Amino acid sequence: MLKLIGVLLDYPRDELWQHGEELLAAADDPALSRGRRRQVVAFVEALLAADPLDAQDRWLSTFDRGRAMSLLVFEHIHGESRDRGQAMVDLIDAYRKNGFELDAKELPDYLPLLLEYLSHRPQEEAKEWLHHIGHIAGMLAARAAERELPHAALFEILVEAGEGKVNLEILRQRASEEIRDDTVDAMDRLWEEEAVRFGTDAPSQECDPPHRSPARALNREVQP
């Protein structure tokens, strides 16, 4: 289930449409409730029915514009503080300790990547991780619902899997009161702020969200 949600939250590369039957089969997961299963199947069917270019453009508009819907987990916890860098180093160490190697441009706190890793870990460990990030998943679910995005159900499933005390109603109310950060005006303000950063402080291209193959995500195995 976690691997599938990671694939569905990841950037929809062209290869995804070549694995439609696999995605639909994975969506019919008995671990999910009947209602959640219907939502995931509907999400997959809608995605496969979409034009790849349109789906990719929607993904970029959703997750790569502004920070509120960022899939970089530690950005929601640490922002741009130094603590985020140390947290990522610690997470990379945890990955390597368990035989999970990253590609050069993959950021360890990218949610689809974390979910792929957790799909190979013991159930209790995965639940503990999801419990730890439950508030983040809940806030993403609330913001997705506020924006009428089908991804809301995927984030809600992560909240439920973590069995945390996350009050989605309160988070939805908070999301309804937030000022959107993905509008043209908001993006202009962000670019103005970033313009003062230069030299060694300039953002690197390595900070782009990793766009991985869904086929690889579905079949990748952690080496013992």
Describe what this molecule looks like in 3D.
GO terms for molecular function: metallochaperone activity; unfolded protein binding. InterPro entries: DMSO/NO3_reduct_chaperone, NO3_reductase_chaperone_NarJ, TorD-like_sf. It holds the Pfam family Nitrate_red_del. This is Nitrate reductase delta subunit. The chain has one domain (2-219). The protein has 224 residues and is an all-alpha fold. The protein contains 13 helices and no strands.
Strands, helices and their partners?
Layout: H1 2-9, H2 20-27, H3 34-49, H4 52-63, H5 73-78, H6 82-97, H7 111-118, H8 123-132, H9 134-146, H10 152-162, H11 168-177, H12 184-194, H13 214-219
Helix pairs in contact: 1-7, 2-3, 8-10, 9-10, 9-11
Overall outline = globular
Number of domains: 1
Helix content: 55-70%
Number of helices: 13
Give the CA-CA distance, first to last residue: 21 Å
Low-confidence stretches: 194-224
Look at the helices and sheets and give the structural class: mainly alpha
Overall pLDDT:
82
Radius of gyration (Å): 17 Å
| Share of β-strand residues | under 5%
Biggest β-sheet: count, sense, barrel? none
Order of helices and strands: HHHHHHHHHHHHH
Number of strands: 0
Protein name: Nitrate reductase delta subunit
Keywords: Nitrate assimilation
GO molecular function: metallochaperone activity; unfolded protein binding
GO biological process, one term: nitrate assimilation
